[in-house]
Amino acid sequence: MPDLIYDSTQPMARLIEIMRRLRDPETGCPWDVEQDFASIAPYTIEEAYEVADAIERRDWNELKGELGDLLLQTVYHTQMGTEAGHFDFAEVANAISDKMIARHPHVFGDESRDKSAEQQTADWEKIKAAERAGKDQGGTLDGVAIGLPALLRALKLQKRAARVGFDWPSTDEVLDKIVEESRELVEARETLSQAEIEEEFGDLLFVMANLGRHLGLDPESALRAANAKFTRRFEQVEALLAARGKRPTDSDLAEMDALWDQAKAEERLP
Asked: Which reaction is this enzyme known to catalyze (predicted)?
């Protein structure tokens, strides 16, 4: 009988067995054996972002690899859960399957599919609210994971609060709040401690996330796009400097700013 770890006809069982052997206290990899949920969690977050990055770049071959890396994280946590007696892979897979069936009664039940995307979203939120109630999470903000990236968590907190009416009625009030928070940040910079300045800066970021929500935008996606644009244009500045036989350290702000404007203008050409 062939060794399962070399049997590509059973890909999921193969991966689970590979992880089991990596974690074997006697014959496994010392590094893998030493890990726990907390030490692996940062890698899980990193792999999720690398999946998003491959999608944004539309690199489908790399996406295949990144999805494998992310799948490995699930298998890793599941193996540790199995060792501790918490759960095994079958339970994890069945839990998400049960959840998907319960959250899609219009597909797997007798509810009508003839409803708008907005109504489906509303129904989804009602089902999730009922699930939280079953977990004794009665508070409006209960269940919003603390470990989420701060910008994403801000958006989720704001959406939860908005569901119970705690929200500005229009974008105008959000813009007014941004002006107010900006003014407070300037004042804090001149008179307050570093900790107080950080607090005011956080308030401004929180309101900016709220503005994105009111505009129907994903702040995380918008910031990723801004990061990509900055990277693209700065790399063009470096290329233009290199054509002059220079590096950024050989230049000054005035020159680089002029080249930035050039890169920006060239990017807008058809």
From this structure: ATP + H2O = AMP + diphosphate + H(+)
